[in-house]
Amino acid sequence: MKTLIIVAHPKLVESGTQQFLKTSLANMSEVTWHVLAPKKTHFDVSNEQALLKAHDRIVFQFPLYWYSAPAILKQWEDEVLTRNFVYGTQQALAKKELGVVVSTGDPQRDFKAGSSEQFTLSELLRPYQALANKAQMTYLPPFTIFQFAYLSETEKQQLVVNYQQYITNTDFESFHGRELWFEQQLKQKIKVNPDLQKLPQILTAIQDNRENLEELGWTLSMIKDDEDE
Amino acid sequence: MKTLIIVAHPKLVESGTQQFLKTSLANMSEVTWHVLAPKKTHFDVSNEQALLKAHDRIVFQFPLYWYSAPAILKQWEDEVLTRNFVYGTQQALAKKELGVVVSTGDPQRDFKAGSSEQFTLSELLRPYQALANKAQMTYLPPFTIFQFAYLSETEKQQLVVNYQQYITNTDFESFHGRELWFEQQLKQKIKVNPDLQKLPQILTAIQDNRENLEELGWTLSMIKDDEDE
């Protein structure tokens, strides 16, 4: 799976969050980090469309400005996502995935009815969900980063792994999918550097775990069958 | 009441809808038609903020592009609506109103769950509602124009009146408010041109009507009081 990350941030270099996310993806293959340059007057439509075609998962990544993406992403949408390309004769994005990585300085608890922001991010990001719907894309659950500056080291480490999965894991939503992804990551790390003595043991442990879990799953479903009879 | 209409349309001159709306407001006082010029690189922030301060009702007017305003309005928001101006020390927009006039080439029936666009315009326009909330503004029900090109002459005449009220009527949502607005409009027309022989008669008829309606309202409320006892 190839992932295109479309980064829209007017102050990219000064953004701790964006630099952190970029670093998280070092050594990740099949990932394209595509920055929308705010100085441009117009986008090269055919270039941008070719880039979209060449990837399977498209991710809009931005800080929340007035409950939406910075203007540069909207400009990109208005210019690049032509009618024919999206839902006319070409339907070039059909069967691809659309993800949204959004960061905000406000805490998660503010985004609900009755709280200071009144709406959830799921509600505020509906225009992207509607776009995915129109383009016949699968809309992924938005990846949200609240108050990055206040995250602990442990939370940041967790963020790295969750973000990596959002970008590269075909099935990041199921436990099974996340486990398989960890196995693949470990295998690759061992391949690149066999000196990492402990990794093969961890990998075996995870695989054993998974087999045990699958057995338990079978047992549970048999018990359930008995109950249903 | 002073109304500021912020018009965001990349092809304003070619837009039949926008030209129609502009013409609808000819002779309307206390209305500022403010076009966001797409060629500008940056907005004059203090100019724009002064303009906002000088008006009571702020209206974003645009065609729906990818379920949101064209990029130029987002750029304006990102640059002009600074934190301090909106919700920091100044709260300069508090107690003002925010309206949205949005046009789309798709029919109204497409904007609901299960239909082709999946979401209502109320849902898609949440980011503006959230902005109003943050700025302590009153959010007006969005004024929607579906498939302008297919409207009949009668529908267009109705649109003129409804739009004029959305822009200039302090109370366009109640029947009473709309009636008062008609009275004012007629009075003004008679004042400007007393030769319009029939208008004073229409005005009297409307006023009589209103008095009758008020009487009926009293009678109804008395009947209800009797029932409640």
From TrEMBL, chains A, B:
<dbReference type="GO" id="GO:0010181">
    <property type="term" value="F:FMN binding"/>
</dbReference>
<dbReference type="Pfam" id="PF02525">
    <property type="entry name" value="Flavodoxin_2"/>
</dbReference>
<dbReference type="GO" id="GO:0003955">
    <property type="term" value="F:NAD(P)H dehydrogenase (quinone) activity"/>
</dbReference>
<dbReference type="InterPro" id="IPR046980">
    <property type="entry name" value="KefG/KefF"/>
</dbReference>
<protein>
    <submittedName>
        <fullName>Nadph-quinone reductase</fullName>
    </submittedName>
</protein>
<dbReference type="InterPro" id="IPR029039">
    <property type="entry name" value="Flavoprotein-like_sf"/>
</dbReference>
<dbReference type="InterPro" id="IPR003680">
    <property type="entry name" value="Flavodoxin_fold"/>
</dbReference>
<feature type="domain" description="Flavodoxin-like fold">
    <location>
        <begin position="1"/>
        <end position="165"/>
    </location>
</feature>
<keyword id="KW-0560">Oxidoreductase</keyword>
<dbReference type="GO" id="GO:0009055">
    <property type="term" value="F:electron transfer activity"/>
</dbReference>
